[in-house]
Design goal:
The structure holds two protein chains of two kinds. In chain A, 69% of the residues lie in helices and 0% in strands. Chain A is mainly alpha-helical. Chain A has three domains: 108 residues, Up-down Bundle (Four Helix Bundle (Hemerythrin (Met), subunit A)), CATH 1.20.120; 60 residues, Arc Repressor Mutant, subunit A (Orthogonal Bundle); 81 residues, Arc Repressor Mutant, subunit A (Orthogonal Bundle), CATH 1.10.10. In chain A, helix 1 packs across helix 2 and helix 2 crosses helix 4. In chain A, 34% of the residues are buried. By secondary structure, chain B is an alpha+beta fold. Chain B has one domain: Histidine kinase-like ATPase, C-terminal domain (Heat Shock Protein 90), CATH 3.30.565.10. In chain B, 34% of the residues lie in helices and 32% in strands. Chain B has a five-stranded antiparallel sheet with strand order 1-2-3-5-4. Chain B is globular, with a radius of gyration of 14 Å. The mean pLDDT of chain B is 85. Classes of the chains: A mainly alpha, B alpha+beta. At the A-B interface, helix 6, helix 7, helix 8, helix 10 and helix 12 of A face helix 1, helix 2, helix 3 and helix 4 of B.
């Protein structure tokens, strides 16, 4: 009979849920930390199975499991006994959320398949070759043809680089390596107060490294195209593009750190 | 055969998580009209700087109109206070880098259109073959 094993499984599942509930009661109502330990132990296989989905994206599986376990512990601690759901159901989004947050904080690995990373790596050279050959900036279609891929993949690969660049802003001149770039951006009220400073980014400009300052000067004061700047400073055009974007973002973040009135 | 203008509209969260999505969409649109790599980069930078000024809260409307000469883009409505000063007409001194100077460099023209509730929409025009 097909139904028998299924029924058996359901009974086992029901029993496990009852045991979880009893352990949760012991932990939440009596403060029994050994019950908490047992709950963690019982649900580590769930964490491992969820962590495996995120394997092969530049992070060791054990690290992903550890991060996932944090999500599990949070779920156990926050679980309300009045809830009708099982702990496994409640914990799953917590575990996945914690893993995703980890990847987001680490940067771009979760969103960037290896093939795109490799395509991004080969794009710089292709753009340089095509610019030299054509005497102008190549189109996306031309880059795609050069790399024997589709224009859509080229566009995605372009974003691979920019995603990395944006995340690495937190290692800008402020030196706050652990700071999420988004945390440095003020709320609406602050933005109103500081809007007048935005007319001039000059104080923040002074804080950039000399090379970045020179690139911005060439681009926005001399009006040189990226291709010419790239030749002058001996970098690829893509690298120049990233440095410009990164510098402007860093300057804006610097500006938000300058107390109102100090910019004039 | 393309009948101009063609229009693409998008509402995107202002949160930084979605900036790459906006850039990707701009890239996709610009690729359709055969913009050069550098021209795409310019338009992406212009929109990115405007969105950075708009803050991280709420969402923003983006409209792209494909015209024969290139792409017209509307970004907003944005909080007027957030960008009015940055785009003001004041004289730019040598060595000074303003949002206005950045837009003047990377797009062919731009303008500010008034919207409701003291908010504004910024219009950008990027022409093909202008990088």
């Amino acid at each position: 009979m097909n139904t028998f094993p299924q029924r058996n499984h359901e009974v086992a599942g029901e029993k496990a849920r009852e045991e979880d509930r009893e352990l949760l009661r012991r932990y939440h109502e009596q403060g029994d930390t050994s019950a908490r330990e047992e709950l963690i132990e019982r649900h580590l296989p769930l964490v491992r199975s969820l962590a495996r989905r995120y394997a092969g994206r530049g992070e060791a599986l054990e690290d992903i499991e550890q991060v996932g376990a944090i999500g599990l512990i949070k779920a156990i601690d926050r679980f309300e006994l009045a809830r009708e759901v099982s702990l496994a159901t409640y914990a799953t989004p917590n575990v996945v959320g914690e893993i995703k947050r980890h990847f987001r904080d680490k940067g771009w690995a979760i969103r960037v398949p290896r093939a795109l990373q490799e395509l991004n790596a080969s794009m710089s050279g292709a753009i340089e070759r095509l610019t030299a050959r054509l005497g102008r900036s190549p189109s996306i279609a031309e880059i795609a043809e050069e790399l024997k891929t589709s224009p859509e993949e080229v566009l995605e690969a372009m974003e691979v680089g920019s995603a990395y660049s944006t995340v690495s802003l937190s290692t800008g001149p402020g030196g706050e390596e652990d700071l999420d770039p988004l945390e440095t951006i003020g709320g609406e009220d602050e933005e109103y107060e500081r809007s007048e400073q935005r007319a001039a980014l000059e104080p923040a400009l002074d804080r950039l490294p000399p090379r970045e300052r020179e690139i911005l000067r060439m681009r926005f004061e001399e009006g040189l195209p990226q291709t010419q700047i790239a030749q002058r400073v001996g970098l690829s055009q893509m690298h120049v593009s990233r440095l410009i974007r990164k510098s402007l973002q860093v300057m804006r973040e610097e500006l938000l750190r300058i107390p109102p009135g100090a910019a004039s | 055969m393309t009948h101009y203008p063609e229009r693409i509209e998008l509402k995107a969260p202002l949160s930084g998580d979605f900036q790459a999505v906006v850039r990707l969409i701009i890239g996709g649109i610009a690729e359709r009209v055969d913009f050069a790599f550098e021209e795409i980069d310019d338009l992406q930078l212009a929109v990115e700087r405007l969105l950075a000024e708009a803050g991280q809260v709420g969402s923003v409307d983006l409209s792209f109109e494909i015209v024969q000469e290139g792409i017209r883009t509307w970004v907003g409505p944005l909080n007027e206070h957030a960008i009015a000063d940055a785009l003001s007409d004041g004289e730019v001194r040598p060595g000074e880098l303003t949002l206005r100077r950045i837009l003047e460099t990377v797009v062919d023209s731009f303008g500010v259109e008034e919207a409701d509730d003291n908010r504004v929409v910024v219009r950008l025009v990027k022409r093909k073959g202008s990088a």
